[in-house]
Specification:
The structure holds 2 protein chains of 2 kinds. By secondary structure, chain A is an all-alpha fold. Chain A has 2 domains: 1-30; 40-105, no CATH class. Chain A is built from 5 helices and no strands. By secondary structure, chain B is mainly alpha-helical. Chain B has helices at 5-40, 44-53, 57-68, 73-83, 86-98, 103-111, 115-126, 134-160, 174-183, 190-205, 213-241. The chains are: A mainly alpha, B mainly alpha.
Chain lengths: 106, 242
Amino acid sequence: MSADELWLIAGMFAVTFGIRYLLFGLADRISLSAWLSDSLRFIPPAVLTAITVPAVLLPDGQWQLSAANPYLIAALCSLAAGIVTRNLLATIAIGLATFFLHRLWL
Amino acid sequence: MNEPSSLRRQEFIAGVRDTLPLLLGALPFGLIYGAIAATSGLSFAAALAMSAFVFAGSSQFIAVGLVAAQTPVAIIVLTTLIVNLRHMLYSATLLPHLRSLPQRWRIPLAFWLTDETFAVTVHRFQRGDASTCKHWYQLGSSIAMYLNWQLCCFAGLLLGNRIPDAQGWGLDVAMPVTFIGMIIPFVRTLPVAISVLTAGAASLLTLAMPYKLGILASAFAGIASGLLAQRLLRAQAAVAER
């Protein structure tokens, strides 16, 4: 491993762990106001959605709003599967299967 | 902390079990990371060490891409910082549940905090039962994710040079598909639904923002709209009661 690589990994470790640990470390010294702890409930689905939507609609950084976009079709199928089955494994498996079928046959 | 060890084991195993489906989603993601890393110019040891010590899927991808583009180390580290800022929101969410834990628990749980473990664990913490060992559930989920990620990255690195055009296969579809599965169980009330729709719309309006800062801006838009919807609904219910 070169010195540059060592610095890269040390730096990435420091910022990643720092962000993850900062609030955990102070957990017993921080108390959240009511509206703040109310807002925490919205964080997980909001963050995950903000990552997912562009990944599906602009898979290569370009808009692809058509049935020819396998990411979009896979996402719609896994969304439908998730709503119907309420099963995480089925949601992921159907999404992946749709994607590869789409790529193979279209 | 004097919990019966059977309860600990039970929570730990439940954490592993509930994370198993997510391992399927992380598998192609880890494979493709290894494959990209193998061709990026990063050494085998450095690519493995990054998985072991940084353990953050999306920043590892971005870092490897930046390494291939010969970006200076400081810029890569800064990008990592910004891409991972969302983890601060996650740890804020778990904060009330980890308050009573000693540092020897908080440090590893922080190191192993990922989108997946967070999404699984937050449901466990929010269930209203009196279990005093919910952190063992998070530990189970964390370790399952970690071991799976190391194995997949290792396999990806081994295969990387042999699979032609691994990037062109589109294995990265695993991430959105997994996240969709993780989002659905959260959407149980109207305010959450509104929050999710707003965050999704905002993520498309903030595409021009650099360093993936759009993710954070969209998350805040989603949170604000959810809070607003919740207020309005409560106010409406209060009026109806009168």
